[in-house]
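We treat protein structure as text, and this decision shapes the records that our systems exchange. Because each token names a local backbone shape, the row as a whole describes the fold. An entry from our holdings is shown next, in its original layout:
>
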Amino acid sequence: MNFDFATPIDRRQYPTKKWQQYAEDVLPLWVADMDFHSPPAVIEALKQRVDHGVFGYADATPALRDTLCRWSESHYGWQIDAAWQCWVPGVVPALHLAALAFSEPGEGVLTATPIYPPFLSVARHTGREAQTFELDPPATPDGDWRLDLDAMEAAIRPNTRVLLWCHPHNPTGRVWDVDELRGLAELARRHALIVVSDELHCDLILDPERPHQPLGLLCPELAERLITLWAPSKTFNTAGLSAACAVIADDTLRERFQRTAAGLLPGVNVLGLHAAEVAYAEGEAWRQALLTQLRDNLARLERHVAGWPGVMLSPPQSTYLAWLDLRGSALAESPQQRLLEEARVALSDGADFGWPGFVRLNFGTPSETLEAALARLDRVLG
């Protein structure tokens, strides 16, 4: 099938955070949703479900659970059980829930920066102690962001209970190496940490040489302390339908997670559950076409960045997000605000991710829109 990723869509027609946060003359390339229609199969299935006309409470069906099991095995070789799945109304609520379930007030929740902002607010929202360590940035544009295991271990304190991990990584787009992941697993085991592995972007691998490896598959010894978070929201552009899944192999861990969720989280969106089943069952051809478009968009972005003095981009190996280092540019101070004011392009501020001087750019948009935004940025950064 041919899928249309080229035609711009008027997203101001309905309320949408991405396009209504800023004035109408601003091109928004910030929050992590794409400006593409969801897969046709998902749209058609939702139309049929809406025609039913009743939208009562619902749970994940056996068909949905089986579909995710098949997706996991066919794409990653990870055999998960339907009973391991805990469907929740989003990955961010699940992060907060894990902090509540597996730590006490005042105990430590650890994460690596830069990281997308909800990670940094979990401790504050749950009355835990925020603990962070820094990733190693690349020294050259062709280098990688790296997990510094020594820095991670130095950040672990006697009261650290939970590690929030992002795999693949948002905002850098890094797909972690086996040695990094196994080193992380060993530290988690040695220090008795519960690991929450946010694998939200795992289906959006841009570099075919860097396949995603679920932490639960690569490090089965972590099973008794691992929560893996998945969702169709980024892959199939269904974030507003609020459906995600915590995959928890250990019975005790899963029961504790579910017990904590009772009364705290609402039920999962009934349309989100339906969309998830169809997306995982019928969305593969669309996903492959999307990846082609995203790779083309990334190449377009890289060509422009090459003409921006003092700006460095380590190409993301996954996601539709680019993490730009502007610390060596003329806009080193408050780059997000300067680009908003001078280029009328809205990007995400690196300070919100724990790293001032950076911006995050969302290139999950039609080429026409991306090119228009990049031309504006050329005039300021070129």
User: Anything to note?
Assistant: The longest strand covers residues 160-166.
